[in-house]
Amino acid sequence: MRPTPCRDCRRPVLWTTTEAGKRLAVDPEPNPAGNAGVWRDGTGAVRSRRPSEELPLNGWERLHMPHVATCPARTEQLALPGALPAGVTSLAEHRRKKRR
Description:
The protein has helices at 72-79, 92-99; strands at 4-5, 12-18, 23-26, 36-40, 46-49, 62-64. It is of the alpha+beta class. It has one domain. Strands 1, 2, 3, 4, 5 and 6 form a six-stranded mixed beta sheet that branches. The chain is elongated. The N and C termini lie far apart (55 Å).
């Protein structure tokens, strides 16, 4: 498991493959507050899933926090309600006009 830097904040992240085949970035250190069970499968791939009451955390899995929840660049973007990323247009004004 070799962490790679996040594109936004440059902190190390561990890329996993979920049960649905999607990629999920998690913080590389286990975190008991996390909600992603991470393990290495028989082929060496890093896998993840969301434990539930029906399927609790197994002994070979460790809880990790999804990186999107701890990324400082993401939390800064969320803190600025009026700021949109470059190239993104707000449709709020258009929708207001349409309702009138």
